[in-house]
TrEMBL record:
Keywords, in A-Z order: ATP-binding, Nucleotide-binding
This protein's GO CC annotations: chromosome; cytoplasm; nucleus
Organism (species): Photinus pyralis (Common eastern firefly)
Gene Ontology terms for molecular function: 3'-5' DNA helicase activity; ATP binding; four-way junction helicase activity; nucleic acid binding
Record-given protein name: DNA 3'-5' helicase
E.C. designation(s): 5.6.2.4
Family label: Belongs to the helicase family. RecQ subfamily.
Domain Helicase C-terminal residues, every copy: 116-210
Gene Ontology biological-process entries: double-strand break repair via homologous recombination
Reactions performed catalytically: Couples ATP hydrolysis with the unwinding of duplex DNA by translocating in the 3'-5' direction
SUPFAM superfamilies recorded: P-loop containing nucleoside triphosphate hydrolases
Taxonomic superkingdom: Eukaryota
Gene3D superfamilies found in the cross-reference section: P-loop containing nucleotide triphosphate hydrolases
Length: 210
C-alpha cells in the first residue's frame, strides 16, 4: 500500500487497526486533516478524532503531520497535547491571501439582503457559492434566483446522496453557476475558478467563517 485514505470512524474497527499494524515496512507518514476536530473547544468537535492519536501509537507511525486551517490558540494546545507535539513542531502561516478581496454590505433587515445579493450577482458573474444558515433559506433563495434567470440550485445536508453528487458535478463543470448552500457544501470541493463566496448570514465565530 502506497497511500490509504480513511475516516476516523474506521478506527473503531479492530480488524482495520490490525491490518494497518501488519503493513510491511510500517506506516512512514500519518497525515491527519481537519485536526481541530480533536478538540472539545473546537467548533466542529468529533469524538472519533480522539481515537487518532492512540491509533498512531498502536501502528508506530514513523512521522505524523496534523493539518488544520481553523485552530484557535486553545485548539492548537489540545492538538499538541493529544499528539505530543513540542512547541518547535508547530508551524503557523498567515490567513492573508493577496488574491482575495473582502467586502461587507450592511442590511437593516433580512428583506433588505436579497436586493443586495441580486445586485452583487448581477455585477459579479461567475461560479459562486452563497452560504446561508438554514435549509429552508437555501431552497427559497435558490428558487428566487432561478425566477430571475440565474443558474442556481440549493444544497443542504438532507439531500439524497445521488443528488448531492449531481449538483457537485454540475457545479464543477459549470453547468450550474450558483450553489445556495448550508455548510454541508464545500468540504472537499476543488474548483479553481470559483469567483464569489457570499455569506448571507453572519457566522457565529471566525472559525465557522473560515
Amino acid at each position: 500500500i502506497r497511500l490509504l485514505y480513511c475516516s476516523p470512524e474506521r478506527l473503531r474497527q479492530n480488524d482495520f487497526v490490525t491490518k494497518i499494524q501488519q503493513i510491511q515496512g510500517g506506516v512512514r507518514l500519518l497525515a491527519v486533516d481537519e485536526t481541530h476536530c480533536v478538540s472539545e473547544w473546537g467548533h466542529s468537535f468529533r469524538p472519533d478524532y480522539l481515537q487518532v492519536a492512540p491509533f498512531a501509537d498502536k501502528i508506530k507511525a514513523e512521522r505524523i503531520i496534523c493539518l488544520t486551517a481553523t485552530a484557535t490558540e486553545k485548539v492548537a494546545q489540545d492538538i499538541c497535547k493529544a499528539f505530543n507535539i513540542q512547541p518547535e513542531g508547530v508551524f503557523r502561516t498567515s490567513p492573508y491571501r493577496s488574491n482575495l478581496n473582502l467586502y461587507v454590505r450592511a442590511a437593516k433587515t433580512k428583506e433588505d439582503k436579497f436586493p443586495l445579493v441580486l445586485q452583487f450577482l448581477t455585477d459579479n458573474p461567475g461560479p459562486t457559492i452563497v452560504y446561508v444558515t438554514l435549509q429552508k433559506q437555501s431552497k427559497a433563495l435558490a428558487t428566487d434566483l432561478q425566477k430571475r434567470g440565474f443558474s442556481a440550485v440549493a444544497f443542504y445536508g438532507d439531500l439524497e446522496p445521488e443528488l448531492k453528487t449531481k449538483i457537485q458535478e454540475e457545479f464543477l463543470s459549470n453547468k450550474v453557476r450558483i450553489v445556495v448552500a448550508t455548510i454541508a457544501f464545500g468540504m472537499g470541493i476543488n474548483k479553481r475558478d470559483v469567483r464569489n463566496i457570499v455569506n448571507l448570514d453572519l457566522p457565529s465565530s471566525i472559525e465557522e467563517y473560515s
